[in-house]
Every structure is written in C-alpha cells, then in structure tokens.
Amino acid sequence: MYWVILVLWALGFLVLWKIPLLRNVRPPEISGSLVSVIIPARNEERTLTRLLGSLASQTVTPGEIMVVDDHSSDGTASVSMARGATVFPSAPLPEGWLGKPWACWQGAEASRGDIFLFLDADTFLEPDGIAGILNAHYRHGGLLSVQPYHAMEKPYERLAAFFNIITMAGTGVFSLLTSKIQPHGAFGPCLVCYRQDYFALGGHGRARAHVLESMGLADAFREAGIPVSCYGGKGAVSFRMYPDGFRSMVDGFSRGFAEGSKAISLPMLVLLVAWVTGGMSVTRHLIQSTLSPADVSFFVWAGLYAGFSAQVHWMLRRIGNFGFLPCILYPAPLLFFVIVFFRSLLLRMGIGKISWKGRRIK
C-alpha cells in the first residue's frame, strides 16, 4: 500500500513541473502604440483603480486602454475615466452571448491596435509586465495566455489552493508529459493575440456561450494551426480573485469549474484524479493510525503526509502567496475543492441556480 501511495505522490511532479515565467525584456520590434488593452468590467470600481494605476506606470505604454462597461451599477465608468481610460458602454446582451465574451468582442471591434491585450479587471501588473508579455508574444505569436500570480490578503482566500493547482495542471502545458498529452485550454485573465488572427478566427464570437471564454478562443486558434502558449504570471501579472468574501469565492468557482474540467484531456484527468486520491488516502490512513496508539504505521503515514504537504507547497509557491498553512493542512482546501466542484457539476446539470455580479447565469 505504501508503494502505491508513493507512486500517486510522484504523479504530482508529472502534472505540474516547470511553469515558465515572463522575461521582462522589451522586444525592440514592437511599440506600445500598437497595443490595445481591453478590459471587460461589470461593477468593478474597486478593482479597476489598482489595475489602471499599474497600467499607468508601465515601462512600455500601451497605445490605448479601453474599459468596456457592461451595464455597471457602480462607479466603474467614472473611475475608469478619472484614470485616463476610454470607456465604451456595452450594448444590450444579445441572445446566446454571455457577458464577458460580448464585452471583449465589442472592445476589440472598437479598438485601433494591431495587438489585443485582454485583461480581467481584478488583475494588476508590475512595471515591466507589458514588456514581458509583449516579449513572449513576439517570440511565440498566436495566442498567449498568462495565469496571474494569486495575491491574497484574507485567510478564506487560501482555500482556493487546489483550484489554482488544477487550473494550472489541467491545461497540460506545464507537464513533463507534453510530448505524450496534447495541451488544452488557456487562461482567461490575461490573453494576447494579433488583431488579424482574432477577427479571422471569429474572436470571442467563437466562445460567446462559454463561461470560461478562454477555452473556446484557444480551441479556435489550435484548430487553425496557430500556436497557443501559456505562462505563469509571478513577477509580472497578478490578481486578487475574490475580495468580496467567502460566498463570492464559492459562487465564482461554481459557475465555471465544471465547464473547465471538460477541457482537460482524459489522460491528464486520470493523473489528476489519481494524485488527489493519493492525498486523500494518506489523510484517512493517518487519522486511522492516530486513533490506534499501538499502530507503528503512524510514522510511515506521517512521513507520507509530510511528503504531500511539501509537494503542495512546492506547487503553490509558484502560483500565489499561499504560505505554509494551506500546505500543512492541505486536506482542508482539498475538501473545499471537492465540495465546490460537485456543486458546479450540479449547477451545470440544471440543479440549483447562481448569479454573478447581479446577472443570472444559465
């Protein structure tokens, strides 16, 4: 049994090995004036201040910053204009579209740049962030996606640990098995592509009904034979995902994680499920051995538990400022992940309902 657990533990290194980071080197062939930053925003006055402030301090200044105001009921528009952004009021949501893809599509149509940089409103960049993004896109072309470094401030936010790990590992792009397992998907908070490619492939119209619109957009690029590359955002792009409380975080992950799991290839899904099962099994055996004082296997299970804790820390330190506690007590965020994931499945099957920023998600 111990050897089985060791094998399952080792799978963690296969699914999430090296996460490439953006190099903050400005490509001489690209000017910031060619870049249009497009920010879909619905009731984001609190987050936009930080993002727009970070954009104003870039070493490479974008040609335009456009905030697409998706019928906000707060000060999204006024905050954006005060920070120098162009505000584009969204048209009514057409049938068959979801809010974010529709906002991104309108922003792209109204923009002037040759390169589109789509940013979620809860992201923010280091001063060389755009320089690093453009450098990577210049080298790879196609669609570039960046999963921002998760900057957290409150204890409940650290329950998102396994959502972050599964999101990064599920694409398959950071695995040791990339030559065997075809990568899938992309990260939605930060996407870059050429204007010509975007409109030739149908842009966000290809993902109009996707809660995770980056999945549909990445599929369109890959189907056309255009490369899709993925990076980690540590040191360049960060976000704080759910500052409005625990319920907001539960609803946020519930609305899209079941859909995102569809983009995981079957081999990668099997590996991830096996790895998670190993972590849960170790916890169960450790508790059982603790309740039996004469059971010397306690020390073996404690060692295996420590191995999983160290591995989770090794993963998370590259993804966000989680610290040690979610790693030492990793069964807590793991249980949270399982509960919310199954809630997401039930919602996807039409059992229950969910709203996001005042809009009902069907």
Shape: globular
Measured as a percent range, the helix fraction is 40-55%
Question: CATH topology of the largest domain, what is it called?
Answer: Spore Coat Polysaccharide Biosynthesis Protein SpsA, Chain A
Question: Main sheet?
Answer: 7 strands, mixed
Name the CATH superfamily assignment of the largest domain.
Answer: Spore Coat Polysaccharide Biosynthesis Protein SpsA, Chain A
Instruction: Tell me the distance between the termini.
Output: 44 Å
Q: What is the level-2 CATH architecture name of the largest domain?
A: Alpha-Beta Complex
Count the E strands: 12
Describe the oligomeric state of these chains in a short phrase: single chain
Strand order of the largest sheet: 3-2-1-4-8-6-9
Please specify the SSE layout and strand pairing.
Elements: H1 2-15, E1 35-41, H2 45-56, E2 64-69, H3 76-82, E3 86-89, H4 99-110, E4 115-119, E5 123-125, H5 129-140, E6 143-147, E7 149-150, H6 161-170, E8 190-194, H7 195-200, H8 213-223, E9 228-232, E10 237-239, H9 246-254, H10 257-261, H11 266-290, H12 297-316, H13 325-328, H14 331-348, E11 354-356, E12 359-361
Parallel strand pairs: 1-2, 1-4, 2-3, 6-9, 7-10
Antiparallel strand pairs: 4-8, 5-10, 6-8, 11-12
